[in-house]
């Protein structure tokens, strides 16, 4: 499950927000859709003189927010009141046609942990609004930080607008941490790939990361990346970047795996296994495989140990990048798989499976053994 994140106070008390279309003052990126209206109560700053923080969001370039940065970095912060996919921020600087301000633009899901989107200066050639691209990054907070300009240590910002692509999904994960720091992976080992695209096992995971298992720098998601045709484990011909639970158990009692994730890319075959109940024994001990097949999600099950797999459709028409919440729950001999609210159940022959040591797996188990240049990519935002 995700490790506890530090809480953060809201920057204000209002929670009603309006998205309104406006005519931009400068030429803006083609993907811009709407400007987010920020209530005054949701605008805060480290300090100010008589030029208040709300003046940076009043629609006028003749007013400004100002703060003395002589003693350190000053910041202006917007609480967006929800999670939005930010296309860009429009900034206009006081005397920006003759001053270059040092600035950093940052985003956060919780108001405590920040990721830098831009670090540098304004152009120093215009006082008009100019866009700083965020690349559709999801966030609940946006912060501008500055230590002043090449003229003095005062920070003076005329306007800051936030333009969005609509609502997004914020995980509360730290984009600067490894997967093992964002999630409790103490009961998992990692099956990944080495530099020669051959199988590599990592246990314990701790702070381990590589190009096939990493934290997405935009969302903080635990990401699994698998090139088609890479090396496979002993009893398979398919490549994987996958977590395997260390704890094993027998059929009986209740065993649950809950995951929130997205399939970001599918291989040429269109097939990925995104979750499993697997067995230690060879010869067909895969109790359940949760399969992605060109946007359809199916459960593959075997009534008896060693049987051929039966496939049951759970959900169809799921798009790449669409959120998938799934729960695999085995109670006695009956497994129930729920995907985005739709459930299917199957009952096994318990006598056939009674001596099999079982465990959970999740990640990206690509079903493409050809070296065709395609890949599977899966992003996990919650694990329990």
TrEMBL record:
<dbReference type="InterPro" id="IPR000421">
    <property type="entry name" value="FA58C"/>
</dbReference>
<keyword id="KW-0812">Transmembrane</keyword>
<keyword id="KW-1133">Transmembrane helix</keyword>
<keyword id="KW-0472">Membrane</keyword>
<dbReference type="Pfam" id="PF22633">
    <property type="entry name" value="F5_F8_type_C_2"/>
</dbReference>
<dbReference type="InterPro" id="IPR014895">
    <property type="entry name" value="Alginate_lyase_2"/>
</dbReference>
<dbReference type="InterPro" id="IPR013320">
    <property type="entry name" value="ConA-like_dom_sf"/>
</dbReference>
<protein>
    <submittedName>
        <fullName>F5/8 type C domain protein</fullName>
    </submittedName>
</protein>
<dbReference type="InterPro" id="IPR008979">
    <property type="entry name" value="Galactose-bd-like_sf"/>
</dbReference>
<feature type="transmembrane region" description="Helical">
    <location>
        <begin position="12"/>
        <end position="32"/>
    </location>
</feature>
<feature type="domain" description="F5/8 type C">
    <location>
        <begin position="26"/>
        <end position="167"/>
    </location>
</feature>
<dbReference type="Pfam" id="PF08787">
    <property type="entry name" value="Alginate_lyase2"/>
</dbReference>
């Amino acid at each position: 499950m995700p490790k506890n994140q530090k809480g953060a106070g809201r920057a204000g008390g209002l929670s009603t927000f309006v998205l309104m279309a406006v005519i931009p003052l400068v030429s803006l990126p083609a993907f811009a859709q709407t400007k987010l209206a920020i209530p005054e109560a949701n605008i805060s700053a480290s300090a100010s003189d008589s030029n208040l923080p709300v003046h940076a969001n009043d629609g006028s370039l003749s007013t400004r927010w100002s703060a003395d940065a002589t003693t350190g970095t000053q910041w202006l912060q917007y609480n967006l009141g929800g999670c939005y996919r930010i296309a860009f921020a429009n900034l206009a600087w006081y005397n920006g046609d003759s001053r270059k301000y040092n600035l950093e633009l940052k985003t956060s899901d919780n108001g405590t942990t920040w990721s830098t989107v831009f670090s540098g200066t304004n152009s120093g050639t215009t006082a008009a609004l100019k866009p700083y691209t965020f690349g559709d990054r999801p966030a609940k907070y946006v912060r501008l930080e500055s230590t002043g300009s090449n003229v003095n240590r005062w920070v003076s910002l005329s306007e800051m607008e936030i333009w969005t692509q609509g609502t997004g999904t914020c995980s509360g994960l730290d984009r600067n941490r490894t997967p093992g720091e964002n999630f409790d992976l103490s009961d998992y080992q990692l099956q990944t790939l080495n530099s020669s695209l051959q199988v590599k096992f990592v246990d314990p995971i701790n702070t381990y990361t590589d190009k096939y298992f990493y934290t997405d720098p935009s969302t903080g998601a635990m990401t699994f990346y698998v090139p088609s045709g890479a090396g496979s484990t002993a009893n398979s011909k398919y490549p994987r970047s996958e977590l395997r639970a260390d704890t094993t158990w027998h059929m009986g009692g209740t065993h649950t795996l809950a995951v929130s994730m997205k399939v970001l890319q599918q291989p040429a075959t269109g097939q990925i296994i995104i979750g499993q109940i697997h067995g230690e024994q060879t010869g067909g001990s895969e109790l359940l495989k949760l399969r992605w097949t060109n946007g359809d999600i199916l459960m593959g099950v075997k009534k008896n140990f060693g049987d051929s797999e039966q496939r049951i459709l759970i959900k169809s028409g799921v798009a790449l990048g669409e959120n998938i919440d799934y729960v695999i729950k085995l109670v006695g001999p009956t497994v129930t798989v729920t995907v985005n609210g739709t459930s299917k159940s199957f009952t096994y022959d318990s006598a056939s499976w009674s001596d099999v040591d079982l465990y959970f797996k999740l990640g990206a188990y690509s079903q493409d053994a050809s070296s065709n240049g395609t890949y599977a990519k899966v992003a996990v935002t919650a694990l329990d």
